[in-house]
Specification:
- It contains seven helices and eleven strands.
- By secondary structure, the chain is of the alpha/beta class.
- Helix 1 packs parallel to helix 6 and helix 6 packs across helix 7 (about 175-185).
- It is globular, with a radius of gyration of 15 Å.
């Protein structure tokens, strides 16, 4: 199972590193089919929030097939103005068995037209903006993550870890996901 995490300049660090840790820990603990990697627009280093420099594994032009796409949040407004990124999301989503977002990553999926009419969530601070910018979405604010069809969206930052553990549990069972959370010494909010 190829898990591609899309990152970009000013992405929130825990939005991508949290899910990456969940999936890579799950692989180390026996979910050997999980192959997690980072994808960015190009091959240049990404400067995430706080100045962390990250080099993705692939660009949007050369990555392997993606079974689970995770779109992270952060300062997302520039990404929403990039037709190339929106087109890429539109091309990947139908081929992926699952699509997820952390925090304001939901804005990118919504802007690409992928979430129409779905029940979604995002960071608590961005709930009003998501609701007003995309009135066709049912935006809720009382859940760490929500699944609607093949789309799972989560609240901000640490909620992406909870969502990723949930996605692990869907494939490998609740007990295994609980073991992954324990290995990470993380108090999973199921």
């Amino acid at each position: 199972m190829n898990i591609g995490i899309y990152i970009y300049d000013q992405a929130e660090v825990l939005d991508f590193s949290g899910p990456y840790e969940v999936f890579s820990t799950a692989k180390r603990m026996g979910a050997e089919s999980m192959n997690v990697f980072l994808v960015s627009e190009g091959n240049q280093p990404i400067v995430a929030r706080g100045g962390l420099k990250v080099l993705s594994d692939y660009s949007i032009h050369n990555h392997p097939a993606i079974d689970l796409l995770v779109v992270v949040g952060g300062v997302h407004t520039d990404e929403m103005r990039k037709p190339k990124i929106l087109s890429w999301l539109v091309s990947i989503a139908p081929r992926a068995s699952e699509v997820a977002s952390v925090c304001t990553g939901a804005f990118l999926l919504a802007k690409a037209g992928l979430l129409g009419g779905q029940t979604v969530t995002t960071h608590w601070e961005d709930i009003p903006d998501l609701s007003s910018q995309f009135p066709n979405l049912k935006v809720i604010d009382d859940r760490r993550w929500v699944t609607s069809g093949k789309f799972t969206t989560s609240g901000g930052i640490s909620a992406g870890i909870d969502m990723s553990l949930h996605l692990v549990s869907k494939r490998h069972g609740l007990e295994f996901a609980q073991k992954v959370a324990r290995q990470m010494e993380y108090n999973w909010q199921e």
